[in-house]
Amino acid sequence: MLSGTFDDTYFMRRALNEAQHAFEKGEIPVGCVISVENRIIAKAHNLTEQLTDVTAHAEILAITSASEALGAKFLNDCTLYVTLEPCVMCAGALFWSRIGRVVFAAEDPKRGFSRYSNMLHPKTKVAKGPLAEECSALIKAFFEDKR
To answer: Would you say the C-alpha torsion 95, 99, 101, 102 has a positive or negative sign?
Structure first.
C-alpha cells in the first residue's frame, strides 16, 4: 500500500468511478486506472457493447492509453487498479506490457486469471482487496437488473 493521500484505496475509488460510467452505459461495470508516480495517466471502463468489440475491456483500453501517454510499450513503473480481477485475455496483455503492479478489488472465481495460475509477468506484483465489497455490489446489481 502506498503512503499518504494517494494510496490504493484512492486509486481504486477512481477505478470504481469508471465502473459506474460503464454501468450507466449498460456495460458490465468494470473500471480501471493506471498510475505512475501517484499520477493517473490512463483511465477506462468496459466498452464491449458500445464498440461491438469483445476485446474492449477496461484493462486493454487503459493499457493502450497509458502506452500512448508514456510513449512506451512497457509499463514497468506503473500500477493498474481494476474493480474486477482481470480475465485471461487481460492478464495476457498485462504480461506483455510488463506492468509493475496490479491491484484488483473483487475476485472473479469464474473467469479471473488466478483461477488458471499466475499469468502475469514474473516481476509484476499483485494485490487485492481495496473496495472489494463496493465493486462486487456494483457488478451484482448490474446482473440482477439484467435477469
So the answer is: negative
